[in-house]
Write a structure and sequence with these properties.
There is one protein chain. By secondary structure, the protein is of the alpha/beta class. The chain has helices spanning about 10-15, 45-55, 100-105, 130, 135-150, 165-175, 190-195, 210-220, 235, 260-270, 290-300, 320-325, and strands at about 5, 15-20, 35-45, 70-75, 90-95, 110-115, 120, 155-160, 180-185, 200-205, 225-230, 245-250, 280-285, 310-315, 335-340. The chain folds into two domains: about 5-135 and about 310-340, Alpha-Beta Complex (Quinone Oxidoreductase, Chain A, domain 1), CATH 3.90.180.10; about 140-285, NAD(P)-binding Rossmann-like Domain (Rossmann fold). Strands 3, 4, 5, 6, 7, 14 and 15 form a seven-stranded mixed β-sheet that branches. The protein has a six-stranded parallel β-sheet with strand order 10-9-8-11-12-13. A two-stranded antiparallel ribbon has the order 1-2. Strand 9, helix 7 (about 190-195) and strand 10 (about 200-205) form a beta-alpha-beta unit. Helix 5 (about 135-150) crosses helix 11 (about 290-300). The longest helix is centred in the middle third of the chain and has 15 residues, at about 135-150. It comes from Aspergillus cavernicola. This is NAD(P)-binding protein.
């Protein structure tokens, strides 16, 4: 089978190679709970583009295959797999557990993938496969953010990065919960973000610095929560001017880089107010995907209540260009690689 591998560390253009004779995973045995999937589409992660450059190859791990989530169809399944996953041809979304791609190189950017049934969810055959491939990463992250915040009807929420892969789902989920949503993105993405249902739109390129504008406009009607998909430290530092004392900034972005973001997280969560700490809650967490969440999100899509925006779909041979698109940080929704040629 074909699979993208990373023999060396560096930018995607020099680090990735398309192997054409990579061993296809074996079919699951009768007693196994695994399933063998023919991959249709893979949604790329911004974090993977960084890891390709940063993480060295570890000894005894074999070729390093990137990526975490996919859409595809069942080829074979063990008898212990969930009943709804045993029929060949069943459309599914699936995810690799995070330590696999990072530590062992067992990613999913390949024509066939074998995974435990606990990491696979059936989807309706009518769901478009490119969009479906982004359900788990974007959706599970967005779900955890609004659940952590406790977003509900009557709340006013600021979504920073509302045109991105997670932000675009956040806007929709917050609206489904009855919240008023203010979306922040560049002016070129205004039509897209308004189409997702925001109540107000802010073009950050016209209102810089953004915290000054927010303080001027929302001091008398502060936000209940700020959901930051970008990672702006200034947005949190200045938040008392536009965020309720009972509110919180929930951040998943790393705009200022990994090391600086790690420092900011420690500062934001541990520094007491009497030493200059910001008198607002700050929350940042990892977001391992969950099968139950994927099933819930797939139902919302089937019902027409949620959509996963796709920025661009690249062919399997053009995966390097897909990573270059991710690196621009300008993608409107998911960047997807179509693995199957048919």
């Amino acid at each position: 089978m074909r699979a993208w591998i990373r023999p060396r560390r560096g930018p995607a253009s020099s680090a990735l190679e398309l192997a054409t004779d990579f061993p296809t995973p074996a079919a699951p045995t009768d007693s196994s709970s695994d399933v063998l999937i023919r991959v249709s589409h893979v949604s790329l992660q911004f974090s993977t583009e960084m890891l390709i450059k940063m993480i060295p190859n570890l000894p005894f791990t074999g070729p390093w295959i990137p990526e975490l989530e996919l859409s595809g169809e069942i080829i074979a399944a063990g008898n212990a797999a969930p009943a709804e996953l045993r029929d060949p041809g069943t459309h599914v979304v699936a995810f690799q557990s995070v330590p696999g791609p990072i530590l062992l190189g067992r990613g999913v950017l390949a024509e066939y993938v074998r995974l435990p049934g606990s990491q696979v969810a059936r989807i309706d055959a009518g769901i478009e496969m490119a969009s479906a491939s982004g359900i788990i990463g974007s959706g599970c992250t967005a779900l955890k953010m609004i659940r952590t915040a406790g977003v509900r009807e009557g709340h006013t929420v600021l979504v920073n990065g509302a045109s991105g892969s997670v932000g675009s789902v956040l806007v929709q989920l917050c609206k489904l919960r009855g919240a008023t949503v203010v979306g922040v993105a560049s002016g070129g993405n205004e039509a897209m973000v308004r189409g997702l249902g925001v109540d107000e739109f802010i073009d950050y390129t016209k209102h810089s610095p953004l915290p000054v504008y927010l303080a001027d406009q929302y001091a008398n009607n502060p936000f209940d929560f700020i959901l930051d998909c970008v990672g702006s430290q200034a947005l949190f530092t200045n938040s008392p001017a536009y965020l309720k004392p009972s509110g919180a900034v929930i951040n998943i972005g790393i705009l200022e880089g990994t090391a600086k973001t790690a420092y900011n997280v420690l500062l934001n969560t541990l520094l007491p107010t009497w030493l200059g700490g910001v008198p607002r809650r700050y929350i940042m967490f990892n977001t391992p995907p969950l099968r139950d969440d994927a099933i819930y999100l797939a139902h919302l899509i089937e019902e027409g209540r949620l959509r996963i925006p796709v920025d661009e779909v690249f062919g399997m041979e053009d995966a390097v260009h897909a990573y270059e698109r991710i690196a621009t940080k300008r993608a409107r929704g998911r960047v997807v690689v179509k693995v199957r040629g048919d």
